[in-house]
Write a structure and sequence with these properties.
heterotrimer, A alpha+beta, B mainly alpha, C mainly alpha, A: alpha+beta, Ubiquitin-like (UB roll), Fumarate Reductase Iron-sulfur Protein, Chain B, domain 2, 5-stranded mixed beta sheet, two-stranded antiparallel sheet, 31% helix, elongated, B: mainly alpha, 3 helical TM bundles of succinate and fumarate reductases, binds iron/sulfur cluster, binds FE2/S2 (inorganic) cluster
Chain lengths: 236, 130, 126
């Protein structure tokens, strides 16, 4: 008989449940290196087909399966079962409206992403081919471009919990910094104008939950400090 | 309900900036305050020395500078905390202004205290002495 | 049109989030700061009053050397030590130093454990 692992999963069905609750499951550990997503799939396919969660790529690229796993945010598909203390508590990303079970409403999160205008704004006429960057300029984007917008960082941030209506949160700010650094972008001034706000940007108090949570091992705290320094440079 | 993007207030920079400037001033001055206190506590600084040291015009000026760095740091720090945990604009306005009044009052009183060398001679200071 | 029967519940946050040392370091910065808001102005006032008059000096010293005064002094020193060391850590991040992921975690450890050491040392010395 193969070994089993216990999970406790957050359940909520808006049609039948008044309140969310935790439900226990036991899942056989079939192979070493089994990931949390495999366990969720096992439950869905063999035990309870109504369990609802998002996933797509299964390898940490798409950013769909951000979850709160034993109290820390991470991606189900790349978090190994072995490193987790059972019973493994799986909850949706914190401070989000729950649509069903582990699926949360990400609209506000992506709305905040949109607020930072995550696209290239250039004054120069469109070249015939792509806009070129030197290897050095391209390297500036390391540590930013890897972000998959999973939301693990933003939903781990206490400042965002308390003031998420205004505070843009680490994911959007990391992206804002990515466009500030892009050598092809000409809208740095307007971008900084838009960010200089005691709630949008300066709510970050370097709690560093975001950095601890990021499954791509990025550092939003540092990105936010980069923006603050850019503002100092402009003003002082 | 979806929160609307209300644009940018262009505030925040100054609070952030002055919090750090005052922090650097305090980084150098507060250890002096605590050092003098601890030495006095240990009986190493007599009244005569303390009196001469702290009523010299230069140390009075330094005390005022320290006072204002302290108040700046207290204001910026408490403001952020209030904004974090109090969520309606009305409550924020009330609490922030009460705080501002308290700090301003403290600033006025302490400036007076420093400059006029206020001392207390009642034999009943609420400290259990006697 | 939209048939939303009830508002979706908010997923749990503070109650379930695991405490990391970096988060603790940040909360402790805030807590020590709030504590110091009360004690530093009071001690500043006390010291100046003691410097201004002989009688106040005597009373002040008596209070400071009492067990409550000593305790307040000790706790203030500890809170101040923490707030200053962690403040330096934050200032370094502001100017873009020690801001790799590893350095951030390590510095949180250094700050917290050096404060514990300082608190013990001061308790013995004071
Ligand atoms: S910074 Fe990291 S945690 Fe945040 S959205 Fe991007 S990949 Fe996810
Ligand atoms: S470092 Fe800033 S953005 Fe990251 S968790 Fe802390 S407050 Fe939030
Ligand atoms: S399923 Fe795509 S990131 Fe996990």
């Amino acid at each position: 008989m193969s070994e089993k692992v216990k999970l406790e999963i957050y359940r909520y069905n808006p049609e039948s449940d008044d309140k969310p609750y935790m439900q226990s499951f036991e899942v056989p550990v079939e192979k070493s290196g089994m990931k949390l997503l495999d366990a969720l799939n096992y439950i869905k396919w063999h035990i309870d087909g109504s369990l609802t969660y998002r996933r797509s790529c299964g390898e940490g690229v798409c950013g769909s399966d951000g979850l709160n796993i034993n109290g820390v945010n991470g991606l189900g598909c790349i978090t190994a079962i072995e490193g987790l203390k059972p019973p493994i508590k799986v909850r949706p990303l914190p401070n989000m409206p729950v649509t069903r079970d582990l699926v949360v409403d990400m609209n506000h999160f992506f709305d905040q992403y949109k607020q930072i205008k995550p696209w290239l704004q250039s004054n120069t006429p469109k070249p015939e081919h792509e806009r070129l960057q030197s290897p050095v300029e391209r390297a500036e984007l390391d540590g930013s471009y890897e972000c998959i917008l999973c939301g693990c960082c933003t939903t781990s941030c206490p400042s965002w919990w308390w003031n998420g209506d205004k505070f843009l949160g680490p994911a959007a700010l990391l992206q804002a910094n990515r466009w500030l650094k892009d050598s092809r972008d000409d809208a740095a001034g307007e971008r900084l104008d838009m960010l200089e706000d005691s709630f949008k940007l300066y709510r970050c108090h370097q709690i560093m939950n975001c950095m601890e949570a990021c499954p791509k091992e990025l550092n939003p705290t540092k990105a936010i400090n980069d923006i603050k320094r850019a503002l100092v440079k402009r003003k002082v | 309900m979806k929160p609307k993007d209300l644009g940018t207030a262009h505030t925040g920079f100054h609070d952030w900036y002055w919090q750090r400037i005052s922090a650097v001033v305090l980084l150098f001055s507060i250890p002096m305050l605590m050092g003098i206190l601890l030495l006095t506590y240990n009986g190493n600084i007599s009244f005569e020395i303390l009196n001469i040291a702290l009523t010299h015009p230069i140390s009075k000026a330094a005390s005022i500078l320290f006072l204002f760095a302290l108040l700046t740091h207290m204001w910026t720090g408490l403001k952020v905390i209030i904004e974090d945990y109090i969520h309606t604009t009305a409550a924020r306005v009330v609490v922030l202004n009460i705080l501002l009044l308290l700090l301003a009052g403290f600033a006025a009183y302490m400036s007076y205290h420093i400059w006029t060398e206020l001392s207390y001679t009642w034999d009943c200071i609420p400290c259990g002495g006697k | 049109m939209s048939q939303k029967m009830k508002q979706s519940p908010l997923s749990p946050r503070l109650s379930i989030y695991k405490w990391r040392l970096t988060m603790f370091a940040s909360i402790a910065h805030r807590a020590s700061g709030v504590f110091l808001v009360f004690t530093i102005p009071a001690l500043f006032w006390l010291l100046l009053s003691m410097a201004h008059g002989k009688i106040t000096y005597a009373y002040g010293l008596h209070w400071l050397q009492g067990s409550f005064g000593t305790f307040v002094l000790w706790l203030t020193c500890v809170a101040l030590f923490y707030h200053m060391v962690n403040g330096i850590r934050f200032l370094l991040l502001d100017i873009g130093k020690t801001d790799s992921r590893e350095a951030m975690k390590l510095s949180a450890k250094i700050v917290v454990f050096s404060t514990i050491a300082f608190a013990l040392l001061l308790a013995i010395k004071i």
